[in-house]
Amino acid sequence: MNNLAIFDLDNTLINTDSDHAWPQYLIKKGLVDAAETEAQNEKFYRDYQNGCLDIDAFLKFHLAPLARYSKEELAEFHREFMAEYIIPHISPMQRMLVQSHQMAGDETLVISSTNEFIITPICRLFGITNIIGTQLETGADGRYTGNYIGTPSFREGKITRLNQWLAERGETLESYGKTYFYSDSKNDLPLLRLVDEPVAVNPDAELEKEAKEKGWPVLNFK
Length: 222
Description:
Largest sheet: 7 strands, mixed
Order of helices and strands: EHHHHHEHEEHEHEHE
Strand order of the largest sheet: 4-3-2-1-5-6-7
Distance between the termini: 33 Å
Shape: globular
Helix content: 40-55%
Strand content: 15-25%
Structural class: alpha/beta
Number of helices: 9
């Protein structure tokens, strides 16, 4: 029976937050209003860290720029973004962590609250093809509309989306010998408490406290 290794992405497999970094890239590129975008980006990031993020307001802010460009233009932007803002923040140990599960024959899966446009190419750097991110609506013209569909993969929403993914495969968590989940954030405590083997990675203070209380492994890649 195979195991299932689930990974958060931001500050877990990468030592940065791609959701926070993408607006910084757009500002540097001159594609958005710099002052307004920076203020909003920092506010939402603080809210996320403090555990009080309004996910709908955040997604409205974060997804709006995607509707202004074709998917081809966005793909080119993303290549630049990855080279400057993502790849320099991946350590050999993070790559080895994923590879250790892959070499053991485990199924690997990323569940991130960040949207699927941003995370999919990053996950593929790790050879991970099972990817759950906040889903984006595409219009009749083939462009993103700036809206999301379904349940955002945030907090308890990660459990909802995981169960949907498993159901599509005709599986449940019990279909696996062991289930692992690696995350940095207290926002992921609902899923961490659900799996067999929770692991704190670069943990925030609240997650680190719970990990120590419950004897969960703690990894630091920064």
